[in-house]
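Lecture notes, part 5. Sequence design as translation. It can be helpful to think of inverse folding as translation between two languages: the language of shapes and the language of residues. The source text, in structure tokens, appears below.
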């Protein structure tokens, strides 16, 4: 069995204003701008070492990338194609990561997927998914009439999701 990592400490990387709603790199309708976060992939991989892509080496394998003192916000869930037997024997690549969902009025659901193969670590994928959710919730809280252009004025919270 591989040794499990201890809880990950907050780092200067995670303290960056880029991980706050006010400092996030985003477009006019509060979607994260992925290109602005690409330079963080290698530093996060370096910070996590061999555990960056290994869910079973995280403090909580059921919630990889989440520190023991953190809660998973409503509307976030993980996916892992390898655990579901997908991608085998074909040209599909196995994917895994965090999904952020928001249910808007009228039944429309919006989601963003943060793949660990793209973002280099479970931690960065979780932080980006959580930040995206915070941005959408900010639209909702402003918005009972003052939503950002292109977004609904109010939001229904997504049901808690389990993987």
């Amino acid at each position: 069995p591989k040794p499990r990592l201890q809880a990950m400490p907050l780092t200067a990387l995670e303290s960056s204003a880029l991980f706050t709603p006010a400092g996030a790199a985003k477009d006019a309708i509060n979607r994260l701008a992925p290109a602005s976060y690409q330079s963080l992939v290698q530093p996060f991989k370096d910070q996590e070492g061999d555990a960056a892509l290994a869910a079973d080496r995280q403090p909580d394998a059921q919630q990889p990338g989440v520190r023991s003192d953190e809660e998973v916000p409503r509307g976030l869930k993980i996916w892992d194609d390898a655990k579901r037997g997908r991608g085998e024997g074909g040209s599909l690549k196995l994917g895994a990561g965090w999904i952020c969902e928001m249910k808007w009025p009228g039944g429309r659901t919006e989601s963003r997927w943060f793949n660990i193969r793209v973002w280099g670590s479970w931690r960065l994928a979780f932080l980006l998914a959580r930040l995206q959710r915070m941005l959408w919730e900010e639209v909702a809280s402003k918005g009972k009439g003052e939503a950002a252009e292109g977004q609904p004025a109010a939001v229904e919270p997504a049901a808690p999701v389990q993987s």
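The translated text above is only one of many valid answers, since several sequences can fold into similar shapes. DSSP finds three helices and three strands in the chain.
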